[in-house]
Amino acid sequence: MAGAVRLPRGQAWFASVALAAFALVTVAAGLAAWHKYRLLVGPMTPGPYVDNPLVKTDTYFRNLTGWRTGLLLVALLQFSIWLANMRDVADVLWRQGQRRRRAWLVFGWVIPVAQLFVPKMFINDLWAASQPASQRRRGHPLLTVWWASVLVAANSHAFSDTSKDLKKAVTTDQARAALRQIIIGDGLYICAAALSIAVLWQLVRRLERAVATAPVEA
Predict the structure, then answer these.
(1) How far apart are CA 78 and CA 19, in angstroms?
(2) How far is CA 215 from CA 2, 70, 132, 133, 150, in A?
(3) Is the pTM of this model over 0.90?
(4) Which are the contacts of 197, defined by CB distance < 8 A and separation ≥ 6?
């Protein structure tokens, strides 16, 4: 049956590369934020504006933050395309088990409240479709940990906009407090990206095995 179903390994690589690039740029942005934090702890360095290490670090930090935002959007797009392709495979294996229409592959990421559970429902359904018919079960501890990390990272700035707090900071203490929150948020994003890659490849391998062993009449 494997020849009759198009397995999205190419798109899985695209999504993985996008997620890895996002994670690497986030690491770089976090390091720049940490370096800026350390510079603010010590005494201000005198000298010309262009040679000021704090100004240079701030420039790197702002540029990396912009790249991080762009790569996050690219990673979400690639992950959604991969998810749509995986849905094609799951429809062949267990169409009645796919609980949401395809439109939710887009709307599920942007509609309030639905954001909290709809993407996870798609992943749970794919996971169940990868199992033998007699053993199908939605959910797994890996999926729960992954989705919790995504929600925590996405909402790490829900109670305060750290970027605005940093721009509005008028004292060193205020700037350092905002930078601490940014560094913590970056760590959460890195964790979520790493777990997303792990879940992605687990599903690819599981569905490949399911396709290879499924009866031809499926």
Answers:
(1) 9
(2) 10, 43, 11, 11, 36
(3) no
(4) 16, 19, 20
